[in-house]
Design goal:
This protein is mainly β. The protein has two domains: about 40 residues; about 400 residues, YVTN repeat-like/Quinoprotein amine dehydrogenase (Methylamine Dehydrogenase, Chain H, 7 Propeller), CATH 2.130.10.10. About 10% of the residues lie in helices and about 40% in strands. It is built from five helices and 31 strands. It has a five-stranded antiparallel beta sheet, with no helix packed on it. It has a five-stranded antiparallel beta sheet with strand order 2-8-7-6-5, with no helix packed on it. A hairpin with a 6-residue loop joins β19 and β20. The longest helix has 22 residues.
């Protein structure tokens, strides 16, 4: 009962009159609601399907890095070119039991698959007749993964049992339809409190993009931003459920500033669910500065790669791993690159970084380079340690694109060491946690 209907109202007789009025109003509202056409929501539960996944024998092989001693597990061992998810997508279920990746089956299709940490077995997650698009991402809190197919977004709940034999079951529930004006999907990410999926794509017959947020329970879609330029790497803040970062796909490197120009020529942008127009996160000088491969991190920070030296003739470039505080705008170098005149691009690339990502606990940031090396930088001291080396041939092959496990103790990355692309897991040596 409304507290405002209590107290003195009972004493002076007005309580009964107000109660009767409330009942009359309630009846009127019920009548009006009954007259409104009702449509079934398109959110979770509108469409449900279940299937058992095909389980393949383990292909894993355990090795150790020659320098650091870090344990490196080759998850895949076939001859195809497999691929881990991009580093700003969540690759593991939150309990760490299943790692998601794309597997190139021998003499077969490229399928969305999983690696069971307990047994090493590989699981084909998608149905054989499904065609996914865009990059999936695992849920932050539930044992689910979010995917796109048939012009809609779906939640796949994963259930695994190991006795008497391994069985993995997917229960699919529709979240929402993808707006028809989107030509494709250029980002899919879950917000920090797990209530929305944020995604975007190019607007048909346009040079711009549309970014929206979908309520996971109701499927209701809310517009986040429209841009006059191609937007990509759409990702949600780890701390603010309403904050989204995306990039200008054509503004990221030396010289692009002169080529494109204009007020939108900056790599990293922010938007939220208010009416505020998107704003620049890290405005770069008009003379040009490398800013690339941004990724959210803890405490409303973003890690990215950035440098100011570049040799146009040789292609040699400097690139540090940087961290920017979104609230203050203060940026700092956490993983230093190097610049030496006259050094070949190949040799200089050994000491500069191209992709970066931070671990969910806030202890470490990882950076990779063009040689397939992965360095770990301490968030506390910026101390650098080389975790793995030589998993890529300079000038060719997949980049590591390392992503972190939920507990911050492992990284998934792509390795070209065996001539094809394998998915690998590197474990942070235990003693690094004691002295970071």
């Amino acid at each position: 009962m409304d507290s405002r209907l209590r107290g003195n109202d009972r004493e002076n007789g007005r309580y009964r009159n107000r109660l009767e009025a409330t009942v009359e109003k309630s009846f009127l509202w019920i009548t009006l609601i009954c007259l409104i056409p009702w449509t079934t929501p398109q959110g979770l539960g509108a469409d449900v399907a279940t299937w058992n996944c095909e389980v393949f024998p383990s292909e894993r092989e355990v090795t150790f890095d020659e320098e650091s001693g870090a344990k490196v597990t080759f998850v895949t061992g076939n001859s195809g070119d497999d691929a881990n998810l991009y580093f700003h997508q969540r690759s593991w279920l939150p309990d760490g039991s299943l790692l998601f990746f794309f597997r190139q089956e021998e003499d077969g299709p490229r399928t969305f698959s999983g690696y069971l940490e307990e047994t090493g077995e590989i699981v084909r997650i998608q149905k054989p007749d499904q065609s996914l698009f865009g990059l999936p991402t695992a849920a932050r809190y539930a044992n689910e993964v979010y995917v796109a197919h048939d012009q809609a977004l779906w939640a796949w709940e994963i259930e695994t049992v190991f006795e008497p034999k391994t069985r993995v079951t997917v229960t699919e529930k529709k979240i929402c339809d993808i707006p028809e004006e989107m030509g494709s999907l250029s980002g899919l990410n879950e917000n920090s409190d797990g209530t929305r999926l944020v995604f975007g794509g190019p607007v048909k017959d346009s040079t711009g993009s549309l970014i929206v947020a979908a309520d996971k329970e109701t499927g209701e879609i809310q517009e986040v931003a429209r841009t006059p330029f191609p937007a990509g790497h759409i990702q949600c803040s780890w701390d603010n459920p309403d904050l989204v970062m995306f990039n200008h796909q054509r503004s990221w490197k030396w010289g692009d500033h002169n080529r494109f120009g204009g007020p939108y020529d900056h790599r990293m942008w922010l938007a939220d669910l208010s009416d505020r127009a998107p704003w620049k996160l890290y405005p770069t000088p008009a003379t040009g500065e490398l800013t690339t491969h941004e990724c959210w991190w803890v405490d409303n920070q973003v890690v990215f790669c950035s440098g100011t030296h570049w040799n146009q003739e040789t292609g040699a470039e400097e690139s540090h791993v940087k961290v920017i505080d979104v609230d203050t705008g203060v940026a700092r170098i956490i993983g230093a690159g190097s610049w030496v005149e006259g050094v070949s691009p190949r040799d200089l690339a050994k000491r500069n970084w191209w992709h970066s990502s931070g671990d969910p606990t806030g202890r470490f940031v990882a950076g990779d380079n063009w040689h397939g090396d992965i360095a770990i930088f301490s968030a506390q001291s910026a101390r650098e340690r080389l975790l793995v080396q030589n998993h890529r041939t300079y000038g060719g092959g997949a980049h590591p694109h390392m992503g972190w496990s939920p507990d911050g103790k492992k990284l998934v990355f792509a390795s070209n060491r065996r001539g094809n692309v394998d998915v690998c897991i590197a474990e942070i040596p235990v003693d690094w946690f004691a002295d970071w």
